[in-house]
Amino acid sequence: MSISCSFCFYFSGDTQVVTQISYLQCLSDQFRIVTHAYACIVHAHMIIESQELPPIGTNAYALLEPSLKQCVIIDAPAEAYEWAVQVAEKYSCQIIALILTHGHWDHILDGHKFAKAGILTYGHADDIEMFASPSKMASYAIPGLELKELPINHWIKGGDQLELLATKMEIRHVPGHCPGNVLVYVPCEKAAIVGDVIFAGSVGRYDLPGGDFSVLEKSIKTQVYSLPDETTIYPGHGPVTSVGRERAGNPYVKG
Ligand SMILES: [Zn+2]
Ligand SMILES: [Zn+2]
């Protein structure tokens, strides 16, 4: 059995309890999944913090390098700016960049606040319309939200090597959920922040505009499953997982 929630991801029958809880949450008129922080994962050098944020439980990530007093934020759901400022202050860091994994409304709602604060923004040009005219997504966003334009300073593409926080970050293009989904792979941290291409035991929706399952499947097989098994996957929704775990057991895309 497989049911879909109205957001960004599918649940499979073999995670039935999770499915039922999440489905009920999706149906609730609150549309606000209880906000909670996942564990703060401290790596040898970099610190990665995450926060599930409104209005539909989208994860924002902060990559922090206290020795440099710098921080990079990945994705900007509602309230992400206020959360990011708090996290940066906690480690005495300055936010130097906002990377958007893709242009869907739930990942860019707070993006304009980062831009207004002078923080450099990064995104893939295949989602340019969503960044430039997010109101076009109103038909599949929560009604009544203010969808503000997000200027992008740096267009990134698959194969780019970013040098941020004195660390090499590889950009991989993973379309299929939407045309401009990228993942940020940080080899020395064994970490990949992937947006909505894959989740723990699930995959991104492919029925939204620009979505395509065969493209998504190819992205996962060639760009996600080719990462080392021990790589931690930090998805756009839900808990962390690993490349090895998904390659061995993801019910939608077999490794
Ligand atoms: Zn999403
Ligand atoms: Zn999405």
Listed once per kind, the bound small molecules are:
zinc ion
CATH topology group: Metallo-beta-lactamase, Chain A
Report Rg: 17 Å
Instruction: State the share of residues found in helices, binned by percent.
Output: 10-25%
Work out the strand percent.
Answer: 25-35%
Compute the average pLDDT. Answer: 87
Under CATH, the homologous superfamily reads Ribonuclease Z/Hydroxyacylglutathione hydrolase-like
Quote the distance from N terminus to C terminus: 21 Å
Widest beta sheet: strand line-up: 3-4-5-6-7-8-9
Which term fits the overall shape?
A: globular
Give an overview in words:
The chain has helices at residues 16-27, 80-90, 105-108, 111-116, 128-132, 213-224, 243-249; strands spanning 2-4, 10-12, 41-42, 47-53, 58-65, 70-74, 94-99, 120-124, 154-156, 161-164, 167-173, 182-186, 191-195, 198-199, 202-203, 232-235, 241-242. With 255 residues, the chain is α+β, with helices and mostly antiparallel strands. It has one domain (2-249): Ribonuclease Z/Hydroxyacylglutathione hydrolase-like (Metallo-beta-lactamase, Chain A), CATH 3.60.15. The strands form four sheets. A seven-stranded mixed sheet has the order 3-4-5-6-7-8-9. A six-stranded mixed sheet has the order 10-11-12-13-16-17. It is globular. It starts with a strand and ends in a 6-residue tail after the last helix. The relative contact order is 0.14. One zinc ion is lined by residues 8, 102, 104, 177-178, 196.
